[in-house]
Structures are given as C-alpha cells and as structure tokens.
Amino acid sequence: MELTQRDLFLLNNHEDISRLIADVDSMKDRMKRHVADLGAIISGELNLPKSGVRQWIYRHNCLVHDIEVRDLRIAFDLYWQPTHWSLQVLGRNQSTNQALNAQIKDLGQVVQTDAGPRRELKRWQFNADLKSISQDFCKEFFSVLERFDVQLN
Q: In this structure, is residue 153 part of a structural domain?
C-alpha cells in the first residue's frame, strides 16, 4: 500500500486526532442541548402544540420549524454556527419558494448554502442570549406568516 502525505500525517498523529474527534463530538452534544434549550423557549412563546408548527433539530446545530398551511410549506431554520446564529427561511417545495421570493423579497438577504439559496432574515452573535433570540425569532416568524395571511391556533 502506498501512503500519501496525508496518510502519514494521520498515522503519526492518530492519538491527537482521536482526542480531537472526541472533543468535537462532545461539543456537538453540547450544541444540540443548547439548541434544544432554545427550542423549549420558543415552544413556550409560540404555544407550539396548538399551532400546527413542527419543531425538530437537524443534525446538532439547527432548530427547524416547519409549517404547512394550505399549499404553503415553509421552513424556518435557526442555525448555530461557530461564529453566529442565523435565521433562514425557505420553501419546502417550488411553489412555496416562488411565493416566498415574491412576498418577502424585501426581508433579509439571500445566502448560498450547501442545500441551495435561502433567505437569511436575522443574524446574532454566537453567544447571544437565548431569550433574545427567541423573541426575535417569533417576531420574524409571525412577520413572514402575516404576509401570507396565516393565522396560528
């Protein structure tokens, strides 16, 4: 077997790399708990069990709120990244994406992600207070839904 420079590096540093991987896994677990804490705060403010909004965590760092009303399928994703929190909104189907582009083109900015373009409505520092993020999230969430005449509960 021929070893590349990268292979040699990994073999020579396998103990440090193993510790680093364990540290990253531990950090992801802490991030997921932090994101879940934010989800609990938002659930209390939105009264989610009655509203028809499905809340779940994607991977370890994204709190997702999916709403399906009439023919609209909208996702509100709150990503916790190493440098900041980001509230992104996207349509779960082509017709919703077109409606979003028409109705909220004046909100936030379009960002390119691995999953394609999304509209980033708000950004916070990575260590921002969860209560503040929750309040801002609810404001942005209801602002978007209001543009589609969507009433919850």
A: no
Domain count, the chain: 1
What pLDDT, on a 0 to 100 scale, did the predictor assign at position 69? Answer: 85
| Residue 9 scores a pLDDT above 70 | yes
The proportion of the chain whose per-residue pLDDT surpasses 70, expressed as a percent, equals 97
- The residue segments making up the domain with residue 103 are 5-147
Q: What pTM did the predictor assign?
A: 0.84
Does any domain span residue 11?
Answer: yes
Query: Is the pLDDT at 20 greater than 90, yes or no?
Result: yes
Span 116-142, average pLDDT: 92
**CA torsion sign, 118 to 87 to 146 to 150?**
positive
User: What is the distance between the alpha carbons of residues 57 and 77, in angstroms, rounded to a whole number?
Assistant: 9
Asked whether residue 107 is domain-assigned, the answer is: yes
The residues pairing with 124 across neighbouring beta strands, listed in sequence order, are 85
Residue 148's alpha-carbon distances to 18, 30, 72, 99, in angstroms, are 50, 36, 9, 9
Report the CATH number that the domain containing residue 16 is assigned in CATH.
Answer: 3.30.1460
| Residue 54 is assigned to a structural domain of this protein | yes
- In 3-state terms, what secondary structure has residue 144? helix
Three-class DSSP labels, 33-85: HHHHHHHHHHHHHHCHHHHCEEEEEECCCEEEEEEEECCEEEEEEEEECCCEE
